[in-house]
Amino acid sequence: MQQGKLQGYILRRLLYAVLITLGVVTITFILLRLGPNSPADRYLANMSARTQNPAQVIAAIEARYGLDKPIWQQYTSYVVNLFRGDWGWSFSTSLPVITLIKRHWIYSFQLILLSFIFSAVLGILIGLYSAVRQYTKLDYLATFFSFIGISVPNFWLGIMLILLFSVQLGWFKTYYDTSLSIFSLANLKALVLPVITLGTGMMAGYTRYTRAAVLDNLRMDFVKTARAKGLPERLVIGKHVLRNAILPVITIIMFDLSGVVFGGAYLTEVIFGIPGLGRISFNAIFANDYPVVITITLIGSMVVLLTNLATDIVYTWLDPRIHYD
Q1: Which of the four pLDDT bands, split at 50, 70 and 90, describes residue 265?
Q2: How open is the CA angle 151-306-203, to the nearest 5 degrees?
Q3: What confidence score (pLDDT) does residue 160 get?
Q4: Domains of the chain and any CATH numbers
Q5: pLDDT 10s digits, 23-37
Q6: What residues contact residue 253 under an 8 Å CB cut-off, 6+ apart?
Q7: Vertex 87 angle, CA 32 and 285, to 5°
Q8: Which candidate among 126, 221, 310, 319 keeps its CA 20 to 30 Å from the CA of 87?
């Protein structure tokens, strides 16, 4: 019965996700196309067509890509092509958008994955230890650094890390080297500062949430009962306390996992010169390259919606008492 209700819930959520995504695409498309500049302006500069009549060149480019049509016709054509698998053509790079995504997604993926592992593992472990050893020096130290990590903006932290470890000490390069193999130690070293920049704030938050959740569960009657039965403290903490305390922490982690795609990761890629989706989206905004901006916004929306759905499903696995009636 629970399985059938879960499947129905997933189908409803997927339907809502399609409607929400369509709404995001619509709003983004309209806002970008109502801007004061035409995408052909930047395209004209890339073609170095200044020796020609700019007005005629812009008109020709807009006619070629359908930019001279009414906005509702442009929108209809874009959505129809989107459902056909045609994500459009980048005006600023003269490449299909799908080609840009294929080239650059791996850089964002590796940054987000490593930052997620770094922040989640350390945050949960430090928060758990801080709660179990409450009011000790290490607990106060962890709390102090957690407040600092939450308060410091990641873009400022990234700049400070570059100045200290790259400029002053020379341990790392000041930019990301795209010539390195993705699966190499040199590439892993190049990602150390970006991962710390992106993951520090999240790790500080996970530490605080984990500590608070574990402390709440340590006061529960079932913990006293487990200890009264003579269970080892490691088993009491790991099996009884942590499993119940981890539920709210997972919610925060999953939301952060979806949010950092175009939040902290966006700025981190720009600061360290990582050619991921955030950086090409940043460049596309200034170029008024709306096919690229809309596509990356679409991907971000889908990631957020699917991650939220995955969070709800994981909840049922961790806590069988949850039902989708």
Answers
A1: confident
A2: 25
A3: 94
A4: 2-92 (no CATH), 98-286 (1.10.3720.10)
A5: 888 888 887 777 666
A6: 116, 120, 202, 206
A7: 30
A8: 310
